[in-house]
Structure formats: structure tokens, C-alpha cells
Amino acid sequence: MKPANMNDRFLRACRREPVDRTPIWMMRQAGRYMSEYRALRAKHSMLTLCKSPELACQVTLQPIVHGVDAAILFADILLPLEPMGAPFEFAKGEGPVVHEPVTDRAGVDRLRIFEAEEGLGYVLDAIKLVRKELNGKVPLIGFAGAPFTLASYLIEGGKSAHYIKTKKMMYGDPAAWKLLMEKLSEVTRRYLRAQITAGAQAVQLFDSWIGQLSPLDYAEFVLPHVQYILKDIETTGVPVIHFGTGTSTLLQLQKQAGGTVIGVDWRMSLTDAAKLVPGVALQGNLDPLLLFAPQDVMKKRAAIVIDEGKQLPGHIFNLGHGILPETPVENVKALVDFVHEYSAR
Amino acid sequence: MKPANMNDRFLRACRREPVDRTPIWMMRQAGRYMSEYRALRAKHSMLTLCKSPELACQVTLQPIVHGVDAAILFADILLPLEPMGAPFEFAKGEGPVVHEPVTDRAGVDRLRIFEAEEGLGYVLDAIKLVRKELNGKVPLIGFAGAPFTLASYLIEGGKSAHYIKTKKMMYGDPAAWKLLMEKLSEVTRRYLRAQITAGAQAVQLFDSWIGQLSPLDYAEFVLPHVQYILKDIETTGVPVIHFGTGTSTLLQLQKQAGGTVIGVDWRMSLTDAAKLVPGVALQGNLDPLLLFAPQDVMKKRAAIVIDEGKQLPGHIFNLGHGILPETPVENVKALVDFVHEYSAR
Question: A158 in a domain, yes or no?
Fold first, then answer.
């Protein structure tokens, strides 16, 4: 029997039910801004942390001390690339490097669809362990990268400024692109289902770089594939957060693709976002850079987000993107406390 | 007496007057994608090209062969930093490096306001030379960087991923920020006025990185300063293009700040942009990556931009951002021809 959740604020907000306080968690809440995390990273590589369920569990639990209303599994969106046949590493200071980028149809043909239980069993084990350790204290969020964002790493071989190779394939070889997106979608769908079976109580789909696309390109080259994933995951009844950045002109299409909750960054107010995608819960949207501001400035801006969020059918407080490594840890703690205090008024 | 323009399509579109064909020019149309430019850069540094009126003139004229309807002066938005007291260089493969970044109030205090005729006389000389060489063939556009974008380079010391130091000053020392923006605005205002006096027939204000800001931050920390520049330049009667990227949620505020023409990137359709900022001419908005697509795909997308543009009071065809160095030159030529042919139908 799974333990009951003592704190179900986050899940209630996802389901658009009343909450006593606005729930808050933060993308990359387990990360380099915490000395406990840096201590572990001094001993282990990023991939070792991800692949060792005990270590991944330990990192996942680190930010709970800040009082956040959900844990998010410590993992990386690129983990599925290795069992697909495209291994990568995190090069020092350079981010991920895919050893053999996918440059053409033949490369796409070589990619394998796999069962998460086989290729990513260590993630599922970590989920089980975290659920046990959390013992219902807060819910656990699982996650995966969305097909476009994963494709951009696969094709470019790492981070990219302009996505030249990605868009070249998208525009120049639409059949190869479609096959690539279908493979990534099927892998992601199975992976998210397996995470839910293992115990994830909500999942987030990260389409972090989708804001590089025009609405026309999103509709043609991405939407059907994200929809394939999300419409299936929605049938599990587990809340799905659909997240991207720079998405002000994509929100309506993203909602069409699916998601119980839509993520919004700081470029658009929650109120304006709600006009575009009414009736859905929203997650966001403080600029992560406000964690570098004096606390009174940070709180003033957080109050606006909370006030706007209270007018929505459901609101989960979050940043518009991940916490940066240089962030002062005391401001993270102060933000969590403020969101709880201010929203209870 | 200044020569009459034989091709005034661009200026007519800026003024929202009827045109025989949609005018087109492209940001960074003089640049590394052209072998003629690479040949010059093999012999001279970027700053040498900028600071030598004859060379700057030569580079400015290079893309005229493609049939574009305007020339844009070859220069760099950072040139004013040196006479302000913050010299920089273009480091190989790394972009601009400001030798002593402005990190605090004392650094802001040290920045000088200067007369363009003294500090940037070489730019004004280049303008005069280009006007003479063009002899009215197409109009010449001058330009400057906008205060936020310039401030980000000054404070970060170069390009930035997250603008941590910039936003830290903005949120943490609003008085220093205000003084910095006032100094940059005054320098930019004088610089644009001097360019117009020297012969620029239109000017573009590049606020390239403004899309990093929330609408709240733009309104509080940037808008008054851009407005100070643009409201003054508008009184000259010379068209002003107000440009940024990632600005879907800032367009209305940008229009409030000023500009005869508003630049739009590919993230929002021209039709949707016109709903937000009706009555103004728009410039844009093809994704520069479509220049890497097969020509039939590129033309299909360009046709959509042209068709939408024809419904506007004024439309100047451009990319949503600059031409990338890797762009196939034959596609640039093909795009110019297509825009002229298709829009004449």
C-alpha cells in the first residue's frame, strides 16, 4: 500500500481543487546552488548520480528542507538517448555532448525504441526508493524531455545557439524528421508510463527549447508528436505538466497538444496566459533572476504572481525556468516561506 | 544637393505609403555568409573594418548585388562603448569582450557622454561615403544599440546566457541602473541624430536581447529610456525601426516607447502582431533558418509573410534576426528575387 500524502497541495492545484496555500516547487530545486549537492558532485559525475538510485534519491530529497510542496526526481532529460543508441556525456563546463550526433535518415534509422524497464531501470528504481523515503511527506514528480528538445540535442550534438542542423533536417528532410519525432515520442510515452507505474504522482514534459519555433513550425513539426505522448499519459489520471520557455505564442497549441497543467515563463503574466488557455491550471512564472534580487524586491514580484495565480482555476508557483547554480540558497528558502505565508492570507 | 532615390520602396513602406513591390533588406546582409566579406575579414579585424570609412563603405555596398531595397551601414552596436570609456575587442570565436565591465555605481559614474562627431566620427564619415557611392540607388539605414542591450554587454563583459549581473544591478541598485540607462540613452540619442545629419535616411534601434525581460521589468526599467531616444529621433521625420527578438509580449510597450516601424521576429505572425500594434508599419519576420531550407520550402514560408504583410499599413520584408554566417549565399539572392516577384503579383 502506498502511503497517503500528508501534503497534497501540489496535486490538488494540478487538479484545480481548492488549496490552503499556493503550492510551490522549483525546477532544478536539487542542484548546484545547494552545498549538499556540490559536495556529492565533487565525488561523483552527473551521470553517476543519475544512474545510482541511492544517490539520485539522496539528491532528490535535498531541497525538501526548504519546505517545497513537491519533490522532483533527480535525473536528466537526456538519459533516454543512451538506450536509444546515442550515448552522451556531460563535458566539464560545456554541457552535454552526444558522441555521434544524428545527422541524417540513416542515423535516425539506427535509433532504437526501448522499454524503460530495461533501458532506464535505474530511474524507476530511484522513483521507488524516493517514494519510500518520502513516505508521503510530499508528492513526487517524474519527468521527461519532449521530442523537439531531445531531437535538438541529438542532432546538434549538444546545446545550440541557433538550431541550424535541427531546422535543416526539419525543413529539408521532413520524412526523416517525422520518423525521429515518432521514435522519440514512443520512447518518451513508454518512459513516462513506466515512471508513473513506478510511483511518480505527476509528470512534467520539458520542451525547454520549443520557443525557438514559429507557431506554424510547432503546429506542423512538433504538435502531433507531443499530442501522441500527452493524450496517452492523460488517460492514466496522473497530472501532466506541459512546460516550455519562450512560449508566449505557442501556449494555445501546447494546450491542444495536451497537459493538465501548462507551464508559463516570466515573459507573459499568468493573467494574460489564462486568457489564451482558459480552464487549465498554470505553473509559473517568476523570473529565476529575481532570486538574485534583494529579498524585498523578490517578494514584491512573487506577490504579484501569487495574486494572479489565485484568480486561476489552479496555480502551482514555480520559476519560469530552472534555478541557476549561482543562486543564493537563502533566497530560495525565503521564497518558499513567502509563498506559503502570503498565499495563506 | 543629395541625390534622389531611384528606389524608394523601403522608405515608402516605412511611411505606410503604397509600394509597387514589398521592399526587402536583411539584418547582417553584409556579413560572413558572403565570400567578398570573408576576404576582407581575412585581411582586417572587425574593428578595423568599422573604423575605416573606406572599408566600412565597401562592406556596406557588398550585398547590394543581391538586389535588396536598402543598404545598412556596416558597423557594430558596441562602437559607442569605447568613447564612453569602456573599450572592447572581438575575441576570436567568442564575440565581444569588454575589458573592464561596469559592475557598480562607481563604474557607471566613470562612463562619459560624448558627441558622436568626436567619438564616432569614423562612422559619420562612412555614412557620407556610402551615400555618395550609392548615389541614390537605394536608401541607407543607420543604426544603434538600445540601452538595455548595450548595458547587458557593458555589465556582463560580453554575451550572456542568463544576464545575471545585468539583472542584479537592475533589481539591486535601481539608482545606478537608472543613471546607466540615462547615459546610454543620451549617447544613443546623439549618435542617431548625428547619423541622420550625416545622411542616414532611416535608423534602426537594436534592442536585440530585450526578450529576456518580463513586461513588468521592461515597463519599469527600460521603456522610459527607449522612449527618451525615440521620441526625439521621431521629430527629425526620418523613419525609425524599433527592433527586438522574443518580443511577443513586449510589442505594445515597444510601440509606446516609439518607432515608425516595429520589428517582429518569427515567433509571432505579422497578422497577430498587427492586432497588438495596429496602425504602425511592421518589419519582419522570416525565421533566418529558413535560408537553410530547400528553396521551395523557403519560398512557401516567405509567401505567407508577404501575403500577411500586404494586409498591413506598411510592411518591410526582413528576417526575424540577422543572417547567420553559415547561410548559403544563393538562398539570400533567391529570397530577394522571390519577394520582389511574388509581391508584384
Answer: yes
Q: How many CB atoms lie within 10 A of CB B91?
A: 10
Residues 6 or more apart whose Cβ sits within 8 Å of residue B234: B240, B258, B260
**pLDDT of res. B1:** 42
- ipTM above 0.90? yes
In angstroms, the CA A193 to CA A199 distance is 10
Q: How near does any CA of chain A get to the CA of B132, in Å?
A: 37
Which chain A positions have a beta carbon within 8 Å of B213's beta carbon?
Answer: 267
- Binned average pLDDT, 10 residues per bin, chain B of 345 residues: 72 97 98 97 96 98 98 98 96 88 97 97 98 97 98 96 97 98 98 98 97 98 98 98 97 98 98 97 98 98 98 97 97 98 96
A125 is catalytic: no
pLDDT digits (tens, 9 = 90+) for A34-52: 999 999 999 999 999 999 9
Cβ neighbors of A328 (< 8 A, separation 6 or more) are: A33, A291, A292
What beta strand segments (E) does A164-314 contain?
A: 202-207, 240-244, 261-263, 281-286
| Chain B residues near residue A301 by CB distance under 8 angstroms | 216
DSSP string, A181-225: HHHHHHHHHHHHHHHHHHT-SEEEEEETTGGGS-HHHIIIIIHHH
CB neighbour class for A161 (10 Å; exposed up to 12, middle 13-18, buried from 19):
exposed
Q: Where are the beta strands (DSSP E) in B15-91?
A: 71-72, 88-91
Model confidence at A91, pLDDT cuts 50, 70, 90, reads: confident
In degrees rounded to 5, what are phi and psi of residue B196? -65, -45
Closest-CA distance, B246 to chain A, in angstroms, reads: 7
Q: Name every chain A residue with its beta carbon within 8 A of the beta carbon of B323.
A: none
Q: Which of A12, A33, A69, A153 is catalytic?
A: A153
Record: contact B171-A292, CB cut-off 8 A: yes
Q: Which residue, B5, B30, B19, is CA-closest to B135?
A: B5
CATH for A196: 3.20.20.210
Is B3 among the domain residues? Answer: no
The three-state secondary structure class of B338 is helix
Where does the pLDDT of residue A5 fall: very low under 50, low under 70, confident under 90, or very high at 90 and above? Answer: low
Cell of A318: 514555480
Residues of A in contact with B164 (CB under 8 A): 289, 292, 324, 326
User: Is B76 considered catalytic here?
Assistant: yes
- C-alpha B219: how far from its chain's center? 21
Domains contained in chain A, number? 1
- Catalytic residue from among B9, B12, B21, B28: B28
How many whole angstroms separate alpha carbon A56 and alpha carbon A125?
10
B247: amino acid identity, one letter: T
Residue of B nearest to A264 (CA): B214
Q: Which of B213, B249, B298 sits opposite A248 (nearest CB)?
A: B249
Count how many pairs of residues, chain A against chain B, have C-beta atoms within 8 Å. Answer: 98
The residue range of the domain holding B286 is 9-344
Three-state SS sequence of B148-174: HHHHHHHHHCCCCCCCHHHHHHHHHCH
In-domain check, residue A320: yes
Shortest Cα distance from B293 to chain A (angstroms)? 5
- φ, ψ for residue A242 (rounded to 5)? -110, 110
Contact between A70 and A139 under an 8 Å Cβ cutoff? The reply is: yes
**Is the residue at B1 inside a domain?**
no
